[in-house]
Amino acid sequence: MTIMETRKHGSAADGLVGGRLSRFEGDLKVTGAATYALEYPVDGLAHAVLVQSTIAAGTVVAVDASQALAVPGVLMVLTPEDDLGLMTASDWYGNRPENQPFLPLPREVTYNGQSIAAVVGESREQAIEAAKLVRVIYEEKPGIADIDDAKAGKGKLMDNLSVAWGDAEAAFAAAPVRVEAEYRTPREYHVAMEPHGLTAKWDGDQLTVWEPSQWTHGMQRNYAEWFGLPIENVRMISPFIGGGFGSKGVALPYGAVAAAAARKLGRPVKLAVTRPQNFTSYGGRAATRQTIALGATEDGVLQAIIHRGANETSTYTDYPEQTGAATPILYKVENFSSQSRVVPVNTVTPGALRGPGKNPSAFGIECAMEELAYKLGMDPLELRLKNYADHDYQSGKPWSTRQLREALTQGAEAFGWSRRSHEPRSMRDGRQLVGWGIGCGTFPVLRAPSAAMIRILANGRVEVVSGAIDMGQGTYTILAQTASEALGVPVDQIDVVLGDSRLPGSAIAGGSMLAGSITGAVHKTAAAARDELIGLALNDPNSPLRDTGANTLTVSNGRIASELGQGPALSLPELMAALGRTEIEVVRNTLPEDAQSLTDQNAAWSSMARVQGPTMGDYSMHSWCAHFAEVRVDEDFGTVRVSRIVSAFDCGRLYNPKMVESQWRGGIIMGIGQALFEEGLVDGRNGRTINNNVGDYLVPTNSDIPHIQVISVGVPDHQASALGGKGVGEVGIVGVAPAIANAVFHATGKRVRDLPLTLDKLL
Amino acid sequence: MRDFSYFRATSAEDARQAALQASAVMLAGGTTLLDLAKCGVAEPEAVIDITHLSGLDGIAVNQEGAVIGTLAKMAAVADHPDIKAWFPAVSESLSLAASAQLRNMATIGGNLLQRTRCAYFRDPLTFPACNKRNPGSGCSALGGVIRNHAVLGVSEQCIASYPGDLAAALVALDAVVDLGQRQVPVDDFFLPYDHAPERETVLQPGEMILGISIPASVAARNSTYLKVRDRQSYEFAAASAAVGLELESDNRTIKDIRVALGGVASKPWRARAVEQALIGKALEEQTVARAARLAMDGAVSYGDNLYKIELAPRVITRAIMKVGGLA
């Protein structure tokens, strides 16, 4: 829990919603003053180090920890033999199996890199050395390394993901122009700059956890349920997060290991997951395969889309990476069919990584659309506009707002698309082939309730308090702007307190749902606080504004006065002093009236039970974008450099354009990495991800990033959120990789359908 | 904790004596040593800190050539105006290596001695078999993922690639390693991995690199280092070429040419066959491209690094044409 000081830039209007305020915590972060989870000073710490499996599948027959225990300073070795007394926690939706033990160090090995033991020592160095000496004896079983393994098979059909309307097969068969191809994406990883880890500390039956978290209340519940504690006995603290990208939304087995070790030892335990262990302690994006068949008329009117997708999952959980997620909603089509499979292999269960589902889905459909455009001899921009979806053909509902046409046309204008030469290999700059490509993206609007507290203090400062988190996306800043606008108090009088499960509950910072949700709660709470202040000023016997005859008052620029100038204009400290109040505290939430019980509130803040999808209601609601990429390919070497990107976004109203543009650019940069570099290299013999470090798993460097122009074409969408914004965090990456792959085709005439576009594929 | 003894050397002789101990390593910039210690490959019993030795970080350039002390930082050599002017391939090979942070720490001697990035070499717990770590235990990379492994100077004993950039430039320019008692051409300093992968250099126990010298030449002055990779920065080469060129007075006939390769071989790889094929020939792209293929004589791919056999000659060709002012 940290109180931020505001730092204001630009005009006074920047402090209001929509202003380009710089991020509050920026100075703290760049000067190193922001305290991240593993930096909290805790007395009496012991250090835990994970021991992970080196085989893909099998059973731990025995663990010989004798050498490890002999290392000076080693306090304990936990193995599958140890009963940690944990019970399985609820899933995201709040469903919980009964009486099912939770084994964070299981005997059954189902993937290479699975945690099977942990060493706790006085120092981290001692524990690391001892961890190397833990001897594990396995009974090895044949494993399935990845989705390309011949033993993997076709997988299981996920019936709940099948989508169909019209008669896609017949329409495709009858279409005069057809394209059909398979598109593939590899395993990809979050590689947040801050690796995972935690410090766990027990005080009796109270557990405090310092751990980077995208969802303090959700993870609080995970820990409470594992350890059989009332939820309020667990406190998650996470004021700063060094990147999450979907990986820090739930508590993970290593967290249970650290907290269990701390309980057993009676000492606080810190566990830092090493960079290589970060590749298998939680799942990245699943490898995907999808076949897309498009049928069209000769003048480019889509007749049918047939999508067949598959992704790898673990042997113990069916995790769908929905390659059919964007396929049905990007274009107008009367005949559609999509089916998805999951293919169990020996991997950690994949997880959500920026733009889950939509991202690989867009890679498929957006490459396929350009393949169709070239087959038709049509400009890919024209093909997209020609098949523009006037409503959501999947749900049959109207869009709440959809400025994708504006994104395409304004993006094209800014990019200079009209100067394009259609033929592949027709644009050149010296030895470099130049190519242009488009990729559209989308991400659904997810809505969730949140709560907030506003405290007006005697000194006139205002605290905005929420358990929501800020992992760099700007929560601190936009909440101050929201409260400033609703309260009439300048933004530099506002402090924002976040990142603690003891604070009012909030939606997860995931699925691009936090900003819309928490600004709604803060706005509601701030308006209530203003009303309470005005009520006191009008009615309190000690208020200098009581007998002015005004029937209402305004708060503006931190001063409260009547609209007609009757009576004095008081600053907040003056009014608070007159009222004799030390603080005014207001708590509100955006749950419905009939769901205000403590149980309902706990469930709302710590599960996804009340999250509303994009078509729950009268409209279909999504963010949209169109990316325009220019690449230069050195054909002798096969090297691809992205030389220019222009992206236009419809994310509704922007609460702080500076923060939003930064998130969009971040998503685009990740998309460049996905297009050109990122790929988990799995050894087919033992399922090991061998490039499990940031020297070998490549993400973009500054040199790889060209000028990126971002354009907002959104309009306020009040169906999507109280203040009119749609999600911005996820959508930025969606469509980038196909835009680049399409540009590479335009440059070279070579269609690479499997990411990443490494040089060996273009030689 | 793995304990090791720490000895801060006060003279090179001191350091060499201390290095005679079993399992002793020298610590300079530490960028390789710490990395290898973290992944469990380096487990020294004695660490000899040579960073306090004086007079070993010099960079001197005169008519004869350059003399660079072993403790000179990569960044200092890369940015030295005389190195840039007289030995551009050396400067460029360093600028294109590692990251700015590493270049500010890493030393020239340590740079030469960096170990391979073979993922199997670097993960001893998962892959115990490695002839480089444990002679006779086998090669885990064979049959594994080997996109960036070597195709030259390899055998079923080891297919690891020498990762460095600088050494390729030095090999091309006939640089010499100063070991105090003896001077060894850089080309001979490195041993191919193919028969005794655990032996990477001719360094004997008790020897240390004191510096390198690079003879001045027209080819050195007219040299370049071309590094091809997927990522623009901070990635090892898929293939690289260090090239120096001297033309006859007709300005088109090749009088002297130096070609060495990085990223494709078990050591920095001088391509003498290419050089011999080009001396006396006109600098012309087709001729150069044909000659460049000779660099791949004897190349072997054990899997998904086959592309390197196609790529490397193209890199050589471009580098030669570039340094000839024609690309």
What does this molecule look like?
The complex is a heterodimer of chains A (763) and B (327). Chain A has 763 residues and is an alpha+beta fold. In chain A, 24% of the residues lie in helices and 23% in strands. Chain A is built from 16 helices and 28 strands. In chain A, helix 15 packs across helix 16. The longest helix of chain A has 26 residues, at 514-539. Chain A is globular. Chain B has helices at residues 12-18, 31-38, 74-79, 81-86, 88-95, 100-105, 108-112, 166-172, 186-189, 218-221, 272-278, 285-292, 307-323; strands spanning 5-8, 24-27, 46-49, 59-61, 65-69, 176-178, 183-185, 211-215, 223-228, 239-247, 254-262, 269-270. The mean pLDDT of chain B is 96. Helix content of chain B is 28%, strand content 17%. Chain B is globular and about 65 Å long. Chain B is α+β, with helices and mostly antiparallel strands. Chain B folds into 2 domains: 5-49, Uridine Diphospho-n-acetylenolpyruvylglucosamine Reductase, domain 2 (2-Layer Sandwich), CATH 3.30.43.10; 59-113 and 162-323, CO dehydrogenase flavoprotein, C-terminal domain (Enolase-like, domain 1, 2-Layer Sandwich). Chain A binds chain B through residues 54, 71-73, 112, 123, 125-126, 128-129, 132, 276, 431, 636-639, 641, 676-677, 681-686, 688, 690-691, 695-696, 698, 700-704, 756, 758-760, 763, and chain B through 1-2, 39-40, 99, 117, 119-120, 123, 125-126, 143-145, 147, 228-235, 238, 304, 307, 310-311, 314-315, 317-318, 327.
